[in-house]
Amino acid sequence: MKKYLILFLILGLDALFLLYETSQLSIGYSEVTLLNGGFSVLKYIEEFSLATFGQNDVALRLPMILLHLSSALLLFHFSKKYLKYDRDRLWLLVVFILLPGVLSSSIVVNSAGLVIFSLFLYLNLYSINPYFKYLLLVPIWFVSPSIIFLYLGLMFYAIKEKNYRFALLNLFLFSSSLYVNGFDTTGLPKGHFLDTLAIYSAIFTPIVFVYIFYILYRRYVTSREDILWYISSTAFMISLLLSFRQRLHLENFAPYILLALPIAAQTFYHSYRVRLKQFRGTYKTIFIISLLFLSLNATMVLFNKYIYCFLDDPQEHFAYDMHIAKDLAEKLKEKNIACVNANNKKLQLRLKFYEIGYCQGNTLSKIKHKDSINVTISYKGCKVYKTYVTKINK
């Protein structure tokens, strides 16, 4: 009973944090593109939410928050197979929800949050009844083009288990998804290996990323590979190999590496407990430093608008592309302006979400003209955006 109280307290605080962040963000250009794009499961989930709860930021981000909370519950349930004590599973849950990449996927509308949920759902149902490993493979095909790495990981795992029928099924689904959805190989061939490692470090924090990398290697040399190892390692190795020739969208790969968290936690607690108390200091220190880094990152996200006050150029802020639009739309509505020519395709589409349409009669410009209306946006007392609305008479 006590573990469930703590579990729901953690998830409750997490939900409050995410809802607060929702109120601080504007819709991003990539999110508008997804809503206006072609077929995708996430697009239809978003459309349902917007149609049900109205066109606002809470309705936009609510599906991602619910997917994130569901993923956390699924991880907590699935980790029982790897972690003996409830307190270990609760600490694993805390680490999971504080990871920068998970934090981002729980609030930004992209496929990463849906893929994380789908992977944990698949593994949970697979652990309950092995027949689900066949039943779920086809519906999961539609989740995202990046699901091909699940098929590839499962294919290698099936070959190791000498389950060739399952391997052939995964090979077929992998090939069909690759044929239908393709794989982005655009851009000039150029090495991005170090960039890829740096981004992974930012997604997981350096200590957690290095430890996951070490655990994947250690499991390989000790021949203790299981299904999580095959799925995580396959996606990770492919991303490193491809990074030698092109820049990658790591949101397609990072969800798979998250699957290594239960085996990383299992190894950590095993190594910790086999030692006498006087020799556990190093492990305690590593764990505390990791939590400090994760908490610091979450605090920085919570108070990120204060960072503008320390920047000469507001556009250097890591969340600048997720700010401005909503506040600009509110300022324009206060001045009874319902449409503008933003002279910026991305901003124009973002304003449209907040019911500011396009027209030639009002133009946004950095240059002040006679009778222009000044619109300034400030966060925490620091100016981050300024424009002039000029009426064009025709």
Structural notes for this entry:
- By secondary structure, the chain is of the alpha+beta class.
- It is built from 18 helices and 4 strands.
- β3 and β4 (382-391) form a beta hairpin.
- The longest helix is centred in the N-terminal third of the chain and has 23 residues, at 2-24.
- The chain starts with a helix and ends with a strand.
How is this structure best summarized?
The chain has helices at 2-24, 29-36, 41-53, 57-78, 86-98, 100-105, 111-128, 132-135, 148-160, 164-181, 193-204, 206-221, 227-242, 254-258, 261-273, 281-302, 325-334, 345-353, and strands spanning 339-341, 357-365, 373-379, 382-391.
Model regions low in confidence, pLDDT < 50 over at least 5 residues:
none
Shape label: globular
User: Rg to the nearest angstrom?
Assistant: 23 Å
List the secondary-structure elements in sequence, H or E: HHHHHHHHHHHHHHHHHEHEEE
Number of strands: 4
How many DSSP H or I helices? Answer: 18
- Mean pLDDT figure: 91
Q: Describe the strand arrangement of the main beta sheet, using strand numbers.
A: 1-2-4-3
Distance between the termini: 71 Å
Q: Helix/strand-derived class?
A: alpha+beta
List keywords for this structure.
394 residues; alpha+beta; globular
Q: What's the structural blueprint in terms of helices and strands?
A:
Elements (H helix, E strand, L loop, with lengths): L1 H23 L4 H8 L4 H13 L3 H22 L7 H13 L1 H6 L5 H18 L3 H4 L12 H13 L3 H18 L11 H12 L1 H16 L5 H16 L11 H5 L2 H13 L7 H22 L22 H10 L4 E3 L3 H9 L3 E9 L7 E7 L2 E10 L3
Parallel strand pairs: 1-2
Antiparallel strand pairs: 2-4, 3-4
Helix pairs in contact: 1-4, 1-5, 3-4, 4-5, 4-7, 9-10, 9-13, 11-12, 12-15
